[in-house]
Amino acid sequence: MKKQEIKKLTKDEVLKNIDKLKKDLFNFRFQKINSQVTNPAKISETKKTIARLKTKLKGTLNA
Fold first, then answer.
1. What is the mean pLDDT of residues 35-46?
2. How far apart are CA 9 and CA 4, in angstroms?
């Protein structure tokens, strides 16, 4: 998810995306243990996206 896409999201959409990405990250961890990860870079990208969404969420709460 790109930064421009994140800026356009509402608070509810941000929360839904965070939940979805956390579930994906959970599944990636199991795939990593079982040596089934097709794209290891996807794990770090997912973590960064979660951080961006949390930052956006924090900004909307303070504003």
1. 90
2. 9
